Amino acid sequence: MRRFFTHRYTLVYLVVYGLMGMVPIDGCSVNTGVVLHGGKGGATDLAKEAESDFGRRPRTPELVSQAYEGMAKAAQRSAADDPLRYSYLVRAARMGLWLAHHDEDHEFQTEDVILFCNTAIAIDSSRVEGFYYRAVAMGLIAKANKLKGRSAMNTMRSDLQAALVRNPDFDHGGPHRILGALYLRAPGPPTGIGSTRRALHHLLHAHQIDPKYPDNILFLAEAYQKLKRFDQVKALLIPFIDDGPSTGDEPAKQAWLDRARKMLRSLKPTG
Description:
mainly alpha; Serine Threonine Protein Phosphatase 5, Tetratricopeptide repeat; 2 domains; 12 helices; disordered N terminus
């Protein structure tokens, strides 16, 4: 049995927050061409039980581990012509990514998630989920394995650009948000792709898509802070702290508030 840690943050926040201090170097690439072959069927009951486990509250690592194992088996067993196979694959990826933030062996699990996403993209490249979740997984790879950092970061950017074309509104503007956070947190040239200007462009789009979603507010505030536009940081953070996050469980809400308060305390006087 793998050991887990307490869930506190949202999926996207943990991925992009981990990009801080990342120094990508040339090295091993991440394989995006390997896919799962179709199974012999018998996935429906496994998938239903896995969704039931994942939907239970409070959501605990133990429950999600059980859900992930069931959905992963459903993805593996689903026949190549099963119309629900894509759904099993992307749901297994989503559950696996949740666990990756609490699992000491997360890189191995993240590689599994990439395999699920590769297969989903091969089945239907017109949909957003495979590209989006693979980008999230690539962020974890870049954080955990510096030898794969540059390759993972470049694939992450390409996948997010593909996700933008397919559905920019997905996950509260997630493709814009994660791409913006990537540009904001990644090292700048020549070692990385960081760009505050590009970050602001995408984070503004994410905020326009869902102006109440906490990560859209907080990452945009961070971009303004980096640009020393402190009045705009305050205009975002003060109402957010006063009103509280509009979504999320209590640990996530508290984490968002702590992050906002820390950012607000760190502001330099505007004179």
